[in-house]
Design goal:
Elements: H1 6-29, E1 52-54, E2 67-70, H2 77-83, H3 88-95, E3 111-116, E4 122-130, E5 133-140, E6 143-150, E7 154-163, H4 171-177, H5 182-191, E8 207-217, E9 220-234, E10 237-245, E11 251-254, E12 274-277, E13 280-284, E14 291-294, E15 297-300, E16 306-308, E17 313-321, E18 325-332, E19 336-343, E20 345-346, E21 355-356, E22 361-364, E23 375-382, E24 385-387, H6 405-425
Antiparallel strand pairs: 1-2, 2-3, 3-4, 4-5, 5-6, 7-8, 8-9, 9-10, 10-11, 12-15, 13-14, 15-23, 16-22, 17-18, 17-21, 18-19, 19-23, 20-22, 23-24
Helix pairs in contact: 4-5
The protein binds zinc ion.
Length: about 425
């Protein structure tokens, strides 16, 4: 149910970029593996998959060199220890100490540094669980003791501004150009996903500003914290997102009037895709070649792109038929129904009567049923009548309570000023 004009091919390229972005995000989440250093392997030994190397730290002159164990796919603690010929008995004793639980959750790329005694026992083991947390086990007299050391990172506020332009036409490219990480680009897109369709509505000249927490350790950026405020000027209209925690301790993002950005339905059930066929009641069907109303929106996307539930609800159908291929129907309360057609497959556990959360993946883009290429056909029904999901007005989540309006204003006004000053300066 779609054609492929050349502009769409460009957009398909952008989608590939988004997939690359997601891969990158995964790479960012995963810790960086240390550089493996080849060590001579005795001829009889099987090839070693663990990189064992002397660390840069100078060991005490009378102690053996520090050993670094780098976790690879499929490694566990006992295989790592065996490969480095460390005592299995010591490992057992270390694991039975209090606070040693984290050692059971090794992830590829992580390092464990081991200091042996002159007699070959383990003197100390240091395991960096993450940049701010280290597990340390030390042999004291004859007993092992494990402690967890944490350091508190410095939190700095950072403001970045970017613009959609000819050389940077996608949110991803413009975001990278502005210095945003992949995680921040996704977080910003998620903030505005109820109001802006990044699939359809992005234009040259659109601009964004984001104020966020940068977590630093010894002057180095180790992570990003929350987005405190953001604005997105789309098609001349300014959208603002202001983070606020109310007196009940609930945190959300609101506009400057205290209205929640969070709505009952997402604008697009597919992230960053593009619309190849709009809602049109007098459309010529590309396969059946007769006028048939197009009662939904087609989102062209790569096969396998996750399809997200537009709102909280209950699955009433997850089936297959000749025209729709694999399809899902979700009931949202009394009034609303959404339909998702031509899926390549359903997501794990998706079946009738299952409860579903907004944004949850229900299946993957495909071309099953009557479809000329991979796309999602999406329908939105109100009281059983098809409506255009792009333009229908959507119910809002709870606004800031009137009783808290003064506190809310006092909290967000500095952020609003900062956002607007940044816009003027750029
Ligand atoms: Zn369609």
């Amino acid at each position: 149910m779609r054609k492929y004009p050349s502009t769409h091919l460009k957009l398909a390229g952008l989608l590939v970029a988004v997939c690359a972005a997601l891969a990158l995000i995964n790479a960012l989440i995963a810790p960086t593996p240390s550089e493996p250093v080849t060590i001579p392997i005795p001829a009889k030994e099987p090839p070693q998959s663990v990189a064992v190397r002397a660390d840069q730290i100078e060991p005490a002159p009378d102690l053996p060199q520090l050993i670094r164990l780098t976790v690879k796919n499929g490694d566990n603690l006992s295989s790592l220890f065996a490969k480095a010929r460390l005592s299995a008995g010591d490992l057992q004793r270390i694991l039975s100490t209090e606070n040693a639980d984290a050692l059971a959750d090794l992830r590829p790329g992580q390092n464990i540094d081991v200091q042996k005694t002159t007699t070959g026992r383990i003197q100390q083991l240091r395991y960096a669980i993450n940049p701010t947390t280290t597990l340390i086990t030390t042999l004291r007299n004859t007993e092992y003791q494990t402690t967890i050391e944490t350091v508190r990172p410095d939190i700095l506020l950072k403001t970045l501004h970017g613009r959609i332009s000819k050389p940077h036409p996608s949110l991803y490219h413009a975001g990278k150009q502005a210095g945003l990480s992949d995680n921040l680009i996704m977080a910003m897109a998620n903030l505005f996903q109820w109001d802006i369709s990044f699939a359809l509505d992005l234009r040259e000249g659109d601009e964004f500003t984001i104020v966020f927490e940068a977590l630093q350790l010894n002057g180095e950026l180790i992570d990003e914290g929350n987005i405190l405020a953001a604005s997105f000027v789309n098609l001349g209209e300014t959208h603002e997102a202001l983070r606020y925690t109310n007196s009940e301790g609930e945190t959300g993002y609101f506009d400057d009037n205290g209205e929640s950005l969070h709505k009952a339905f997402l604008r697009d059930p597919v992230h960053f895709s593009h619309v190849s066929s709009s809602f049109n009641l007098k459309r010529m069907h590309p396969i059946l070649k007769r006028t048939m109303p197009h009662r939904g929106i087609d989102y062209a996307a790569n096969r396998g792109t996750p399809v997200r539930a537009a709102g909280d609800g209950k699955i009433i159908k997850a089936e297959r038929n000749q025209a729709s291929g694999n399809f899902v129907v979700i009931q949202h309360g009394e009034q609303y129904t959404t339909k998702y057609l031509h899926l390549s497959k359903f997501a794990k556990g998706i079946r009738a009567s299952k409860k579903i959360k907004q944004g949850q993946t229900i299946g993957y883009v495909g071309a099953t049923g009557l479809a000329t290429g991979p796309h999602l056909h999406y329908e939105f029904l109100v009281g059983g009548v098809h409506r255009n999901p792009r333009t229908v007005s959507l119910p809002n989540a709870a606004a800031v309570a009137t009783s808290e309006m003064q506190a809310f204003k006092a909290h967000v006004n500095p952020w609003v000023s900062l956002l607007r000053e940044t816009l003027i300066k750029n």
